[in-house]
């Protein structure tokens, strides 16, 4: 418990001890002063004295704690702490939907999505999550001043799946845009029907583990398909499996190559993905 508090408040052992002393002494001082106040005003004879006592405690407590924090050398910590508590208490529920984009590569889809929502007061791209330190999408995040989060496999799959970081950015909705890791159940359970993916083929064909980017286009051409396309779908525990939201198709020419097909697919993705996200978020907000 103590080590968790140390991590949360980013303090060392001694500072944690002084902070806890401040809480204890500040609390006692507050209780004493609230009682004195009720006695001196005669209110302690009132039948509602318990309620009045709690109100007095609540009002006096921040002052007492701040006062006691000075001799303990913890004034800066408590000033910040109380400001945070006050901001949380007074903050109105934000009407903005905060979106996180998860991507592993160049980020051309992420780029289009960011552009699409950049002047939208109701939707904010608040976080870029990436598993690949070399990914172009990280440069994009930096250029657009969007916070980014580089994730590690162990914590993503075996620990808290970075839920605290998502909560810190108030994330309501997750968009996978070329994200090549499977989404852990912890995340799916936390965001039911609020994680969507785009796949560069017409699912249920040409999906599943290992099917991404050019591998998909090569498989489609090898099977001599006459058309391919994109699938936007909800994410569940199985790769490329959740309910389909929208598909769009393109034809395949005789001399089609994986590269030329990829280009056509990217065009479809850039046209449809931002629009679909927009419709889904409007529908969610109106429900
Ligand atoms: C997109 O074509 C997307 O459909 C695909 O990765 C590409 C990412 O491009 N996703 C998958 O293959 C997932 N199975 P981008 O980084 O330029 O947006």
Entry keywords:
Rossmann fold, binds glycinamide ribonucleotide, 2 domains, alpha/beta, 287 residues
Structure description:
The protein is an alpha/beta fold and 287 residues long. The chain has 11 helices and 7 strands. It has helices at residues 2-9, 13-41, 49-69, 75-90, 108-117, 136-143, 153-158, 163-168, 185-190, 214-222, 258-286; strands at 97-103, 123-130, 148-150, 171-176, 195-199, 227-234, 244-251. A 7-stranded mixed beta sheet has the order 3-2-1-4-5-6-7. Helix 9 links the parallel strand 4 (171-176) and strand 5. Helix 5 (108-117) packs parallel to helix 11. The chain is elongated, with a radius of gyration of 27 Å. The structure holds glycinamide ribonucleotide. Glycinamide ribonucleotide binds next to helix 5, strand 5 and helix 11.
What's the quick description here?
The chain is built from 11 helices and 7 strands.
- Mean pLDDT, to the nearest integer, reads 92
Major sheet strand order: 3-2-1-4-5-6-7
Question: N-to-C terminal Cα separation, in Å?
Answer: 40 Å
Number of strands: 7
Sheet-strand content, in percent, reads 15-25%
CATH class of the largest domain: Alpha Beta
Q: Give, in order, the helices and strands.
A: HHHHEHEHEHHEHEHEEH
* Number of discrete domains: 2
Radius of gyration: 27 Å
Proportion in helices:
40-55%
Q: Which residue ranges are poorly predicted, with pLDDT under 50 across at least 5 consecutive positions?
A: none
The CATH topology assignment of the largest domain is Rossmann fold
The CATH homologous superfamily name of the largest domain equals: Formyl transferase, N-terminal domain
Q: How does the overall form come out from the CA principal axes?
A: elongated
- Largest beta sheet, briefly? 7 strands, mixed
Looking at the overall shape, the CATH architecture of the largest domain is: 3-Layer(aba) Sandwich
Bound molecules: glycinamide ribonucleotide
Specify the structural class: alpha/beta
Number of helical stretches of at least 4 residues = 11
């Amino acid at each position: 418990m103590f080590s968790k508090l140390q991590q949360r408040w980013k303090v060392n052992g001694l500072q944690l001890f002084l902070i806890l002393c401040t809480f204890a002494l500040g609390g006692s001082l507050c209780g004493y002063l609230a009682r004195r106040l009720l006695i001196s005003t005669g209110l302690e004879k009132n039948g509602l004295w318990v309620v009045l006592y709690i109100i007095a405690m609540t009002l006096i407590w921040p002052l007492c704690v701040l006062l006691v924090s000075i001799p303990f050398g913890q004034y800066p910590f408590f000033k910040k702490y109380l400001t945070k508590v006050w901001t949380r208490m007074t903050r109105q529920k934000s009407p903005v939907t905060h979106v996180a984009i998860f991507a592993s590569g160049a980020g051309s889809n992420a780029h289009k999505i960011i552009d699409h929502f950049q002047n939208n007061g109701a939707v904010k791209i608040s976080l870029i999550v990436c598993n690949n330190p070399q990914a172009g999408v990280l440069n994009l995040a930096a250029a657009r001043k969007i916070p980014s989060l580089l994730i590690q496999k162990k914590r993503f799959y075996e620990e808290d799946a970075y839920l605290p970081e998502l909560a810190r950015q108030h994330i309501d909705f997750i968009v996978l845009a070329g994200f090549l890791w499977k989404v852990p159940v912890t995340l799916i359970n936390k965001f039911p029907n609020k994680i969507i993916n785009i796949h560069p083929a017409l699912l249920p064909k040409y999906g599943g583990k290992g099917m991404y980017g050019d591998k998909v286009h090569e498989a489609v051409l090898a099977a001599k398909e006459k058309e391919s396309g994109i699938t936007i779908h909800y994410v569940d525990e199985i790769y490329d499996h959740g309910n389909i939201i929208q598909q769009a198709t393109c034809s395949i020419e005789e001399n089609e190559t994986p590269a030329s097909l990829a280009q056509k697919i990217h065009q479809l993705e850039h046209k449809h993905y931002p629009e679909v996200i927009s419709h889904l978020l409007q529908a969610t907000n109106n429900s």
